[in-house]
Design a protein that fits this description.
The complex is a heterodimer. Chain A is built from no helices and eleven strands. By secondary structure, chain A is mostly beta strands. In chain A, strands 2, 4, 5, 9, 10 and 11 form a six-stranded mixed beta sheet that branches. Chain A is globular and about 45 Å long. Chain B is mainly β. Chain B contains no helices and eleven strands. Chain B is globular, with a radius of gyration of 13 Å. The chains are: A mainly beta, B mainly beta. At the A-B interface, strand 5 and strand 10 of A face strand 4 and strand 5 of B.
Chain lengths: ~110, ~110
């Protein structure tokens, strides 16, 4: 079983739609959680951190459910420029090292 | 503000050749790491370093060596290239301390081994 699992998609949505991505992680000792965005043939970039209380950044809302080991990302009013792959990322310390574990990503295609 | 710089951007190697992928950061980050990204696999950690003179293995270290003689540089060496090492390689850096570390990535090296 992968440590971080995501639906690979693609999610094809029209402009203006609301879309949600989910992610599950297997390591209960995981401490920090993130969503990264990766454009085609580019490097990943931090989109937002995910906090236990849930957090919002403009059209983006992230939620964390530690009991279910589940992370979500909601995008409202989708724009063409939101088309990218969204990576769920978990930071764990229980092996004595800090390392980010990446999901394989969910691809979003926003269509006009 | 350069951030994380990787060279080269593209490379083609023959099986058995060796080469070094360069990575440099100018943010004085203690933590640096190398990942490879393959289709459907996500990014997998190859090696990492928590500071100058300290390195350790990640998830997929076989066939790769690293060293960290300075805070700024973290080169990745392929000892004897194999077709299975065809991939996109990313170097990343972040602060060692802090509750929510953001990793900054280089632009990647697309490596093909024939």
């Amino acid at each position: 079983r992968k440590e971080v699992e995501q639906d690979p998609g693609p999610f094809n949505v029209p402009e203006g739609a609301t879309v949600a991505f989910n992610c599950t992680y297997s390591n209960s000792a995981s401490q920090s959680f993130f969503w990264y965005r990766q454009d085609c043939r580019k490097e990943p970039k931090l989109l937002m951190s995910v906090y236990s209380s849930g957090n919002e950044d403009g059209r983006f809302t992230a939620q964390l459910n530690r009991a279910s080991q589940y992370i979500s990302l909601l995008i409202r009013d989708s724009k063409l420029s939101d088309s990218a792959t969204y990576l769920c990322v978990v930071n764990s310390m229980d092996t004595g090292r800090r390392a980010l574990t990446f999901g394989s990503g969910t691809r979003l295609q926003v269509q006009p | 503000n350069a951030g994380v710089t990787q060279t080269p951007k593209f490379q083609v190697l023959k099986t058995g050749q060796s080469m070094t992928l360069q990575c440099a950061q100018d943010m004085n980050h203690e933590y640096m790491s190398w990942y490879r990204q393959d289709p459907g696999m996500g990014l997998r950690l190859i090696h990492y370093s928590v500071g100058a003179g300290i390195t350790d293995q990640g998830e997929v270290p076989n066939g790769y060596n690293v060293s960290r003689s300075t805070t700024e540089d973290f080169p990745l060496r392929l000892l004897s290239a194999a077709p299975s090492q065809t991939s996109v390689y990313f170097c990343a850096s972040s602060y060692q301390e802090g509750g929510q570390p953001e990793a900054f990535f280089g632009q990647g090296t697309r490596l093909t081994v024939v």
